[in-house]
UniProtKB/TrEMBL annotation, chain A:
This is ABC transporter ATP-binding protein. Residues 29-279 form the ABC transporter domain. It comes from Nocardioides agariphilus. The lineage of its organism: Bacteria, Bacillati, Actinomycetota, Actinomycetes, Propionibacteriales. Keywords: ATP-binding, Cell membrane, Membrane, Nucleotide-binding, Transport. Belongs to the ABC transporter superfamily.
From TrEMBL, chain B:
It comes from Nocardioides agariphilus. GO terms for cellular component: plasma membrane. Pfam families: BPD_transp_1, BPD_transp_1_N. Residues 111-317 form the ABC transmembrane type-1 domain. This is ABC transporter permease. GO terms for biological process: transmembrane transport. It is a multi-pass membrane protein. The lineage of its organism: Bacteria, Bacillati, Actinomycetota, Actinomycetes, Propionibacteriales. It is found in: Cell membrane. The chain crosses the membrane at residues 9-30, 113-135, 147-171, 191-211, 248-269, 299-324. Keywords: Cell membrane, Membrane, Transmembrane, Transmembrane helix, Transport. Belongs to the binding-protein-dependent transport system permease family.
Amino acid sequence: MTQTNEPAPQTGTGGLSEPTDGAATDPFLVVEDLTVKFPTADGLVQAVTGLSYSVEQGKTLGIVGESGSGKSVSSLAVMGLHDAKRTQMSGSIRVGGKEVLGLANDKMRRIRGREVAMIFQDPLTALHPFYKVGAQISEAYRAHHDVSKSVARTKAIEMLDRVGIPQARTRVDDYPHQFSGGMRQRAMIAMALVNDPSLVIADEPTTALDVTVQAQILDLLQELQKDFNSAIIIITHDLGVVAEMADDVMVMYAGRAVEFGSTRQILTHPEMPYTWGLLSSVPDVTADPEARLIPIKGNPPSLLKPPTGCAFHPRCPHMDKVPGNLCKTTLPELTPGEHGEGHVKRCHLPDPSAIYVQEILPEIAPDLVEMTINDQFPQKTGTGLVGDSPSDDALPKER
Amino acid sequence: MFGYIVRRLIAGVLVLIAVSMMVFAIFFYGPNDPALAYCPESRCTPQRLDNLRHNLGLDRPAPQQYVEYMSGLVKSRHIESGGISIDCNWPCLGVSFKYRVSVFHYLWDRFPATFSVAAGGAICFLIIGLFSGIFAARRRGTMADKAIVSTSLFINAIPYYLLALLAYLYLVQGLGLFPETGYHSPFKDGPFKFVGGLALPWLMLGIAYSTQYARFSRGAMVDALNEDYVRTARAKGLMERVVVRRHALRAAIVPVVTIFGLDFAYLLAGTLFTEKIFGIQGMGLAGLDAVQRTDLPMISAYTLISAAFIVVANIVVDILYSVIDPRVRLA
Ligand SMILES: Nc1ncnc2c1ncn2[C@@H]1O[C@H](COP(=O)(O)OP(=O)(O)O)[C@@H](O)[C@H]1O
Ligand code: SF4
Ligand SMILES: [Mg+2]
């Protein structure tokens, strides 16, 4: 990995980056001021800019944003999966306290799969079509354990059984195309967990699956998280998934974090118009699926030449409420929200809560809010912006 | 699998029958009257031509002659040719107008030379082509990659016969390297003479063909390296060597197999320039010779044998596919 020493663009951590001293649990993953750029024939793609976040052991961070907002690029950076020759990266990524950005490939490969594992969006293309499912899982195990093929095979059967593949003992010799979509994703999960990693990054793990299977896969992930006590980063464009899975949420737009907070904060008191847009576009599962869907107008911007000021301004319906030309000229810093610690947003709006309650809330799918208010999902914080105190006094803590 | 092969073989036989009919039609209705071959130019009267036609059996109905012709595939025949009776042992595809021998056996005797040239050349171009292609793919965009691609384009722009001819003139004639160039039986003359005689032809074929294999395998490898499953392989923490060989290469080899199957079939049908320039008595030269002398039975047999190679190559490629890619079910 090339670590380019260009000046880091505005960091997003605002006033919240004072170091925590003597924190009981150091976050397992700490990403600081991560910037990822791709030189292409058309110019420099600024895929991720000044991104900072952290994830503690056993906790789940949801990363949300439309397609093209830099979610995958930032997680592939954590995995060290960007081609160093074609990528410019700067900032810091610490896994288990160890800096991995710029680590040589032969060192990084020992971390990949063993400490941080990844589940990809489409299990059909992510599994090798020419090798048996069991062999692919054994291979992952043997990459980090010096064991015989038969031991690894036993392990593969055990993992397939664990993720709910029926007749694992015989299905271990199936090829991926002989599995259903849901089973393939279960197999991917088995492969990711076979080395008992401390962090699992699930990049849109249910997007390619049938709706009926999606919930099963999410349940499985949550169940396994308890057993393996691993941290999870779940990447999604679906706030419903976040509501169900995540402790904390980071909303990304045009390569930057634009809002961060506990799941409850983000779902009940969002303060950034882009997050509002995402919430309004979540379909109401109890009603006619199309009824309440209000997609965000326009398209995500080109990352070759991101908009000036707030990157969301060309699509933002609330720009007129900001005095002057601020939205177009000045990039908003991440500033604390009004509902509890740890919540930050990147927006110039002077009184977002009032606008939210009056204009946005009536449009949002009631079940999503209800789900949040009823506390159906566990309220725990554990992921945070760097240096951010993970406690959220405004909300009761479980566990 | 077995049923599939049987079905493909039957289909292949049907194709060959169609080819044989076309060949036969050309023989009969084509621009060259077979009887002319026996008719001395200076003294060829229409009367004499008719007699010849009768003697050769060419005046009988075409279907009858075709059946007779094809019967050679199942039994030996006696063929009256220019007044003498010639034994044409099974498999009989006719008797050469010029040499008065079974054309099949004439060609078959030359097959070892052609096969040796083709197989050795194929090994050379596969090694040179695949290695440089994969090397370039892994260093896509670098100087090494650009050097390989442009070298390959440069060599590709030189006509093969020119390349082989220059090599012959400078290396064999000029410098006296490769003195025994030509085909020597590995059994009668020994392996050293065999290899020494074919080393230069192999190298020439290797260089000439490797260019397209380099570019083709580079493309296939670049595609494979971009596949999601290769990213998965890296994400598992496999060593880069394993990622490239076991995951990317295995996928990249599939499209290469297709063009190789057909290329090899064409090579087996005779490497005309190679045989001509390096003086190798192979099937390609025999085919050329037959065309120059309008030796129609020889041309027919040569065409049929070449077609058979291509049919077989296609079946072999399909079987290889199913071996490489488990999703391909032969049914
Ligand atoms: N290897 C690459 N080269 C150039 N551009 C890339 C590359 N990978 C991703 N991008 C661009 O970076 C942006 C962010 O992509 P990504 O992180 O995949 O978005 P998402 O949030 O949908 O996961 C997109 O505009 C994408 O086109
Ligand atoms: S800063 Fe301005 S443009 Fe950006 S989200 Fe806030 S109000 Fe909209
Ligand atoms: Mg993505």
